[in-house]
Model the fold of this input.
Amino acid sequence: MIKFLKKEVAAAGFERVIVGLSGGIDSAVVATLCHLSFCVDILSEDSMDLLEIKNAKSSKKSNLKALLMPSLTSSKESINDALKLCEKFDIEYEIADIKDFDRIYCEKYGATNKVARGNFCARMRMATLYDFSQKEKRLVIGTSNKSELMLGYGTLFGDLACALNPIGGLYKSQIFELAKFLHLPDSIIEKKPSADLYEGQSDEAEIGYTYQEIDTFLEKYCEYAKFWDNFIKQKELEIRAKKNKTREEFLAYLSKKFDVQDLNENNKKEKIIEKLLTKDFPTEMIKALAHRIKTNAFKANPTKILRKI
Done:
C-alpha cells in the first residue's frame, strides 16, 4: 500500500497529500499509511516490522495534512480520537469545521431528513478538502473500504470522491486487523463504525447487519462472481459452438441448470449469483445486500484503487 501511494502520488505530479480525518477507523488507517509513505524514513517498504511502525518519526511532516471537519452534530468522541491519532504519530492537522454550511442547510431546508443533511455535510467536507488541495497543491486521498464500495454505502461526490484510494481493496473486517497492526489507538479500533452523518448514526444498524456478516457475504458474492466470469461465459461459448444454440436456448439451459426463472441477458449474472448464495445465506440477507450491490451507482465510475496487496 505504501508503494501504491508513493507511485500514484508521484505519477499525478504531487509530493504532498491531504486526508479528511473523522476519527473513524478508515480515515485513521489511511492517515497513518500516508504518514508512513510521505513523512517518515522507513527501513524497507517490503519488511516493515511492528517496532519500526511504532517508533516511526516524522522527518517530512508537512507532506501530509489531516483535515478535521466537524459539523453541528459531529461527536466530540470522534474529534478527540482524530486529535489523539495526530498526536500519537505527530501528524500535521487543521480544523476546518463545516458548521456554518450545516447551519445554513438546516435553516433553508430543515433538519428533519437526517440522511439528506448528512450527505450534504459529506459533500461539504469533500469540497473543503479539494479547496485545500488546490490552494496547497496536495492530492486528496480517499478513505472508503471495499465493503462500502461494493454496497454503495457512501455519498457520491462526498466521501466517495477522491484521487486515490489505498484501502478500496480491503473489506471492513480487514481494516480492523490493519488498524491493530499499525498501532492505532484502542478508542478508534473498539468503537462502533459510524459515518457520523448524524447524531447516533451507526453503519451496522443502518445496513442491518454487522460488518463481519456483511464481509462474509461479500466474499462469497465475489467468489460466485468469479465463478461466473471464469466458467459460465466459457461454457456459453462451448455450448453454443457445439450445439449451435441460439441466445434464447442458452438462457433456457441456464434457467434449467440453476433453477432460476425469468433470465435475460441483463439479469442472468445477478440472478444466478443470488441463487448460488441461497446455499450459504438467508433469503432476506441476499435480497437486502445483493440489491445494494446491484443498484450501487458508484460502481459505474470507480476511483482507481489498490486491489491486490
Summary: The beta strands are 16-20, 64-68, 93-95, 138-140. The radius of gyration is 22 Å. The first helix runs from residue 2 to 11. The mean pLDDT is 89.
